[in-house]
Design brief:
The structure is a homodimer. Chain A is an alpha/beta fold. Chain A has 17 helices and 16 strands. In chain A, strands 5, 6, 7, 8, 9, 10, 11, 12 and 13 form a 9-stranded parallel β-sheet that branches. The two termini of chain A are 35 Å apart.
């Protein structure tokens, strides 16, 4: 069993939180204190079969076994979740909120799918009221599926970004988004210009970046819809605001890659198009990366950039199989998070996304353990987004975004994951794998955002 | 709109069913009257946005638009399902009931997965009481997921077959199963002999085949666990009982195929092993067939044998991608049904199995429409099992196994498939595809077995 959480920091926080505002949660706690892809898997896991967590001011103030903490906190109101499993909230490193309503649209691969379904849908987001309506539904779904932080595409319209951040702010959620940049190869009604994209993004950064828990991402759609000038102005903006993110797509589909080679003949490859514009760095998140060359993997590694691995989307659009083992190789490792990529992704569930990641990896003759899958869903995602000082596990002082998983959420799960909490890490690994392969939104019993209950499953 | 159901046959059935025992269902009805893989897809579809079905004596006595039938049947008790979609029950052409509890077991491909997880689990089925307990849970799950007919592996123990058929008989379900044959390359505790396998199977055929709605399948596990002698005695049995089925596995995994080549050096290929034993015919159902050669596709076509396509299993075990378009080619077509293959399959849902079939097909650069997917799930499965005279669509006189689908079963589905019933086949095709990609057991609102309500969703 790994060492229990250090709760010495608690006393420091007591000055911030009066005893009245404290709240405790008792149950089985699981989080990650290391990377299970490197070294002994079990040593990356922190598991407390009967733990107690003290929350206050939206933060984690202490976590240890119930036995160790019960005397010190016996006066604090406590919510107990017997037979459940408490984990850090899931982190979705790539999703499009305006595509909520067009999820699972039939019969196309990437480029024709964009033209036939996505562009006409995104047009509606020039109306802020419409964007607000969908943003609200979208956040409801994130919570129902246990996602507490996401890196999110809006549309080309600044209104879509305002609607998104207003909803996120109201819900006190740690969210990252940005206006889409696209000045060519898209319908007139969705195009901006290099200059308007620069100016509008700058205003939105000044308005939203670091406002409460909100963060901004400069968001070129992908190379084919951005002129070289637009990409370079995005790079200029990134230099002016070095702590915002860069969020775009990369090497998803073979035809897309051929098109990029035609559009940017001076570049040595798809990643190089972004690199020349100054868009590849440790705050850059590239969705997909299915068909990356070895040289591109190496370049992503040396720049500490991130790939968002989106298996349900990659299978749905027939894009291909992401080489997770290559990204996780010790030679030149690349940071990886999981992304649902709704609306090309077929589920809002990061649990189900880990399920399909397993299948993508199995088709390549390897496996993905539950610990590895759920690391990617939590601490791995936080590291990918450089947010591991704030979220991703239960270290004392971190923001209290947590989810309560129900191992018996369906009849099949109840049979497969009997006798919970697990008594050993071997036992937990098997049961957790069952949850990862069989779980969906029903496995999310409750969600806490910044220490407060934000969702509880009703049916 | 295709022609409505012919209800002229109704009068013939009135002699069987007194008016007292009649029951009517009103709603939107969808079934197939042809194969959407051949010719115009829409002409294979029968869709009644507001239909009325008359049930009696477990059969379909009439189906037409509500308008056409309402006057004749105004005195009959009617259940209405507004905003739902009524379809024939789903048909699962390959599943293992004893693997219910070991669904989603971690980290192996076929051969090691069998040894590590499956064989120890199947040992428990020598105890009939245990087999009865799991059989009951298994049928509950089938119904919750809308499956009304299945071709099912039991274990090597005759007790497992008795337990299965007793449960099926009680539920009045049309089910096919049989004792597994395996006399080598398996633990001692799971082995029979060629002679005991022959004798026990014969007794079980005499006991269960055609008893009520039950049918028997001679069930060699797969070539590696059966001696040539056992396969040939199975062939002899099949000759003696030409209307029972043959159910086994074929060409699932590359290592398995290499092993078969070693074990049967005289054979020209995997299918040939079965062929030489007289096991390949129109009542033969082979699960998987991932790595079939062109010659094997051709041989399956000319013998009118069936492949059970099990996409969730094929991805879970990393077996590979079934070539559906080759099986459906007009040159030498092979009958195909969908199989969940639980416990290697990851879901009991045939709806979700069609979802993953779409992804398998997309990875090969093609698509699978909702009409094609749901044809495989219903009439296609019935044809694969030579049961299209009894089940699979709503032709008058067929057995009344039907499911009531809820297009608004989850919040995402409610957004994606708004405004139901659909008003045209184009509209229906898109909404149905959303249901296929987003639906699970929650999309099954109710299930009727032989005209009687057998399941209704409660949460």
């Amino acid at each position: 069993m790994p060492e229990p959480a250090n709760h010495l920091h608690f006393f420091k926080f007591m000055t911030l939180a009066t005893s009245d505002s404290l709240h405790a949660i008792r149950g089985a706690f699981l989080d990650f204190i290391g990377d299970p892809f490197h070294g002994d898997e079990f040593s990356s896991v922190r598991y407390l079969p009967d733990g107690l967590m003290i929350l206050g001011e939206g933060k984690i103030l202490a976590l240890d076994s119930y036995e160790a903490l019960q005397n010190s906190y016996s006066h604090i109101p406590t919510t107990a979740y017997p037979d459940k499993l408490i984990m850090p909230g899931f982190i979705d490193t790539h999703i499009h909120y305006p595509q909520y309503e067009i999820i699972a649209a039939y019969g196309e691969q990437l480029l024709s799918w964009l033209n036939k379904y996505i562009f006409p849908t995104e047009q509606k987001f020039s109306h802020k009221a419409y964007a607000q309506k969908i943003a609200s539904l979208f956040f409801d779904e994130l919570l129902r599926h246990g996602t507490t932080t996401a890196l999110v595409f809006a549309t080309v319209h600044p209104e879509s970004v305002d609607a998104f951040f207003e909803e996120a702010e109201q819900r006190k959620m740690r969210m990252i988004s940005g206006k889409v940049l696209m000045d060519r190869n898209a319908p007139e009604y969705l195009r901006d210009t290099p200059e308007s994209a620069y100016e509008e993004s700058k205003k939105l950064i000044q308005k939203w970046h670091k406002k409460g828990r909100l963060l901004y991402a400069i968001t070129p759609r992908f190379a084919p819809t951005c002129s070289n000038k637009q990409l370079h102005l995005a790079g200029k903006l990134l230099q002016e605001f070095p702590d915002v993110y860069l969020h775009t797509h990369l090497s998803e589909n073979v035809k897309e890659i051929e098109w990029v080679a035609e559009l940017f003949p001076e570049s040595t490859g798809y990643l190089d198009v972004y690199d020349r514009a100054g868009l590849v760095g440790e705050r850059s998140v590239f969705a997909h990366g299915i068909h990356l060359t070895n040289a591109e993997f190496r370049r992503l590694s040396e720049t500490r950039a991130t790939i968002a691995f989106c298996p349900t989307s990659n299978l749905f659009l027939g894009s291909g199989l992401f080489k997770l083992s290559q990204a996780k190789s010790p030679d030149y490792p690349v940071k990886v998070g999981l992304g649902t990529d709704v609306g090309a992704g077929t589920s809002f569930s990061i649990l189900h996304t880990a399920h399909e990641a397993y299948k993508v990896v199995q088709l390549q003759g390897e496996s993905l353990s539950a610990f590895k899958g759920l690391f990617l869903a939590t601490l791995g995602g936080a590291k990918a987004l450089l947010l591991e000082d704030k979220i991703g596990n239960f270290d004392v002082g971190k923001e209290a975004d947590l989810i309560v998983l129900d191992p018996q959420a369906t009849p099949v799960m109840a049979t497969r994951t009997q006798k919970f909490p697990a008594v050993s890490l071997e036992d937990l690994a098997q049961k957790l794998f069952g949850m990862m392969m069989l779980g969906d939104d029903r496995a999310i019993h409750a969600v806490y955002i910044a220490g407060e209950l934000a969702h509880c499953r009703t049916s």
